[in-house]
């Protein structure tokens, strides 16, 4: 477990919130609420929702005090806390993306998290390999559901070989234990050609499907390989043929599982469809988009929002504009088609397809584009009045993976940089 004060050092306060009214200030630490010591976000959420709060505070000089207040309807607690460091992953997966960064990246990007709290609160994927007995019991006792679990292979020997951790072979025992207690799990299989595809993928889907409904979804995702793999295990890049084979397996299982369980249950990542040059399934095929943040259905969402007019590109203040829409190579064909069907107006909308030199051209998704590559591509696009960025390439709507910022890009280009498309009301 983390130290008591780790996640609860106050970074920002809402002047209209309860915390400010109680005299809590930036830099102070919240230790307990109603005599319950706070270990993580789950404890805080549970205790801060009570009507009457007795808050134990550690001030910046090391002194403790207790303040008391009553929650009023519509008044938030109103405190933001410094980021907590997650529990670290002890696996050494052959495909781990953390090991594939160039030298000199910020330390934050080299943190391998495997934290069940982050899984429950934020939807991060965990492997279950480093859970203590007390943590397993807490998940069960406090009904921390759903969780997001990286399985990769249900075959114990294959999983151990891929993750280089002898504890990783117990995955199905762990899933069965959580399922028996009613914990729902969204799972993923990161597919490495020659390791866990083909018959191993078939077995993994079959064995996870037998745990439905506790296994709520199964995502099939192609491995991401960068050019920075010196002294790492030899892995083969996912090919068009690999993607087509995996999609054939997924679609066959979907037909069977719809008949048996009334759900498709298993879903392929968007990158599978673009790599195989296959049509993106309709929205109903994603059954609520449960793994949208894992790249399952983002392209379908983009297509439908565009067609329905929820996303668009409109001239501001009725003026003529030259607007660049930034994308990675994977989504480029879809966006090219949408723009080609767009009726002519006062906006010249230009698609700016960014090749990923930072990670290598085998990395094609927009979420891994960096500031320096985007700037280089935009400089080759000519004079611009505005730039539209994909939201998933920025942290907190500002920082790229290479530490460049959106503000830096605006200054360098001399044009406003917007996140996402325009709304229908944009003028």
Explained architecture:
The protein is of the alpha/beta class. It folds into three domains: 6-81, Pdz3 Domain; 97-296, pyruvate-formate lyase- activating enzyme; 309-419. Helices cover 29% and strands 18% of the residues. It has helices at residues 18-21, 41-48, 116-122, 133-141, 156-163, 171-180, 198-209, 240-261, 270-276, 298-307, 332-340, 371-379, 406-413; strands at residues 10-13, 29-33, 36-37, 52-58, 64-70, 79-81, 125-126, 147-150, 185-191, 215-222, 266-268, 321-328, 347-354, 386-389, 417-419. The chain has a five-stranded parallel β-sheet. A four-stranded antiparallel β-sheet has the order 3-2-4-5, covered by helices on one side. Helix 7 packs parallel to helix 8. It is globular. The model is unreliable at 1-5 (pLDDT under 50).
Order of helices and strands: EHEEHEEEHEHEHHEHEHEHHEHEHEHE
- The amount of beta strand, in percent, is 15-25%
Biggest sheet, spatial arrangement of strands:
7-8-9-10-11
Largest β-sheet summary: 5 strands, parallel
Number of helices: 13
Alpha-carbon distance between the two ends = 51 Å
Please give the CATH class of the largest domain.
Alpha Beta
Organism: Eiseniibacteriota bacterium
InterPro entries: Aldolase_TIM, DUF512, PDZ_sf, Put_radical_SAM-like_N, rSAM_sf
Protein name: DUF512 domain-containing protein
Pfam families: DUF512 (PF04459), Radical_SAM_2 (PF19238)
Keywords for this entry:
3 domains; 13 helices; 15 strands; Pdz3 Domain; pyruvate-formate lyase- activating enzyme; alpha/beta; four-stranded antiparallel β-sheet; single chain
